[in-house]
Amino acid sequence: MAVTALEPPETIEVEALTVACDGGGGALGHPRVFLTLIDGKAECGYCGRMYLLKPGSKIAGGH
What we know:
By secondary structure, the chain is an all-beta fold. The protein has a domain at about 15-55. The chain has no helices and 5 strands. The chain has a 3-stranded mixed sheet, with no helix packed on it. A two-stranded antiparallel sheet has the order 2-3. The chain is globular, with a radius of gyration of 14 Å.
């Protein structure tokens, strides 16, 4: 039986410290979760997508 390698999870560069992930939506997605980037990165616990803060992003303070 041959073993095939899985594709690595998608990596997405973002310009915000909070992102929402739904796994691509539709029937193949997962419930929408909100992730906070810590040290410039966050990983979705459902689908493994990695979110990275774009270099040079200007992050505004809160309200």
